[in-house]
Amino acid sequence: MSAEFSKMMLGEDMEELNFDLGDIEALQGVSKFPARIKCATLAWKAMEKAVAANEQ
């Protein structure tokens, strides 16, 4: 889900999603503001790192 969110933030095609992002899709407009993409993805990147660290 995190990877799909990152793709959405980068403006990639969302037609190939295997699931619905739900309310998160409201953030799709952020992709038009490159300075805000990092802010929008910060929590997702932190979650990815926490999950990876917990799996080790």
UniProtKB/TrEMBL annotation:
InterPro entries (alphabetical): NIF_FeS_clus_asmbl_NifU_N (IPR002871)
GO molecular function annotations of the record: iron ion binding; iron-sulfur cluster binding
Record GO biological process: iron-sulfur cluster assembly
Alphabetized SUPFAM superfamilies for the sequence: SufE/NifU (SSF82649)
Superkingdom as given in the UniProt entry: Bacteria
The protein's name in its UniProt record: Scaffold protein
